[in-house]
Amino acid sequence: MLVTQQPVLRRFWYALMPMTSLDDGPKPFTLLGEKLVLWKQADGTPAALQDRCCHRTAQLSKGFVEDGNIVCGYHGWTYDCSGACVKIPQSPGTAIPPGAKVKAFHCKEQYGYVWVALEEPLRDIPHFPEDGAPGYRRIFQFYQQWKTSPVRMMENSFDNSHFSFVHKANFGILDQPTPAPYEFRDTDYGFEAETTVPIRNPEASFRVTGTTEPITHRHLINRYYLPFCRRFGCTYPASGIDHIIYNCATPIDDENMILVQWLYRNDSEEACSTQELIDWDEAITAEDREILEATDPDACIDTRRRVEFHMPSDKPGLMIRKQLMDLLTAHGEVEVFRR
Ligand code: FES
Ligand code: CO
Q1: Which of 5, 77, 239, 279 is deepest in the core (most CB within 10 A)?
Q2: How confident is the model at residue 174, as a pLDDT?
Q3: For 202, what's the count of Cα atoms within 13 Å in the CB-facing half-sphere?
Q4: Do 107 and 142 lie in a common domain?
Q5: Which residues form the Rieske domain (predicted)?
Q6: Which bound ligand lies closest to the C-alpha atom of 58?
Q7: Alpha-carbon gap, residue 98 to 315, rounded angstroms
């Protein structure tokens, strides 16, 4: 599936960058092939416009923010968050030409990130119940560009059969390649998948898991949110520690995405520090990234094409494909792919 060629994907919210990235001025971002400028307005809320001035096409992200509006760096034409040109500095007191406007997009802040939907969103940003809940701390783990597609990242994140291989250096058990099956539940946002998996617990992860057992368990309540968000709802039963990750795999174009990763923990900074948790998950995520960047980003979602083979543990990946196919069909689209 070529994400830039499926218009319905423009109707979802995606996490683009941390709000703090806008503290020192406007920033460019390419979402589904659409070039955007993001900036922080006077009231602190973010705004998103097409990154193209309607005067001589200069990128507005090369400009600056003044009184909460975005000013083009070429001749100073100024736009508000609706995209309307509100000032032409060379012609004070003269009417602004009718139609002098730049396309605006839905934009808001949630969970410390700027989220954008390119067209009227079909559903809300996924709900993270741990965010702000008593006893939980939020850790911004990553904001990384990966050379792969969101479908590849999403299915990898539900695929318990890769642990023994990709993650054999830390929690994967190489001689136990048969994964524990998931129990699936349908939800209105995608699906939920529950299982308990055994993991290796080397000394380096004692503070992460909260236990010193050499082999321990993860109880997982994972969730898939159509199209490209997921929850890794991990509890270590031996310690009662929750290690709950949310990801948004934000499509840049047909070959690149941004991985946004939030972590929620119900322990203290003294028990396991923010940096230790980032370092631990970063090493694991780097292993996934290494493999995923070596796959074809054009993941086939219409399984009738039979260009990829499957095994029983691919069930969540096949459910993701089916939900994406159903979404396309419901909006009169077929999968667009490279021939
Ligand atoms: Fe933007 Fe001229 S190109 S003001
Ligand atoms: Co992995």
Answers
A1: 77
A2: 75
A3: 9
A4: no
A5: 13-116
A6: 1
A7: 54
For residue 26, whether the previous peptide bond is cis, meaning omega lies within 30 degrees of 0, is no
Same structural domain, 316 and 215: yes
Q: Is the distance from the beta carbon of residue 73 to the nearest atom of ligand 1 less than 6 Å? A: no
Beta-sheet strand order (sheet of 183-186): 137-146, 257-265, 241-251, 229-236, 215-225, 190-200, 183-186
Q: Is residue 148 within 8 Å of 175, Cβ to Cβ?
A: no
Judged by its nearest atom, the ligand closest to the C-alpha of residue 160 is: 2
ipTM over the 0.95 cut-off: yes
pLDDT at position 175: 77
Q: What is the CATH number of the domain that holds 27?
A: 2.102.10.10
Nearest CA to ligand 1 atom 3: 56
Q: 17 in a domain, yes or no?
A: yes
Which of 62, 87, 117 is a domain's end point? Answer: 117
CA of 150 to the centre of ligand 2 (A): 14
Nearest alpha carbon to residue 111 among 122, 99, 97, 124 = 124
Where helices occur in 234-338 by DSSP H, the ranges are: 274-292, 315-330
Domain boundary among 117, 146, 162: 117
- Whether residues 171 and 298 share a domain: the answer is yes
Q: Which parts of the chain sit beneath pLDDT 70?
A: none
Residue 155 lies in a domain: yes
Q: Given this model, what pLDDT does residue 205 score?
A: 93
The rounded Å distance from CA 276 to ligand 2 centre is 18
Q: State the pLDDT at residue 280.
A: 95
Coil, strand, or helix at residue 113? strand
In the chain, the number of structural domains is 2
Q: Are residues 170 and 106 in the same domain?
A: no
CA of 232 to the centre of ligand 2 (A): 11
Report how far ligand 2's centroid is from the alpha carbon of 306 (Å): 25
Is 87 near ligand 1, meaning CB less than 6 Å away? no
How high is the pLDDT of residue 231? 98
Ligand nearest to the CA of 61: 1
Please tell me whether residues 69 and 163 are part of one structural domain: no
**What single letter denotes the amino acid at residue 58?**
A
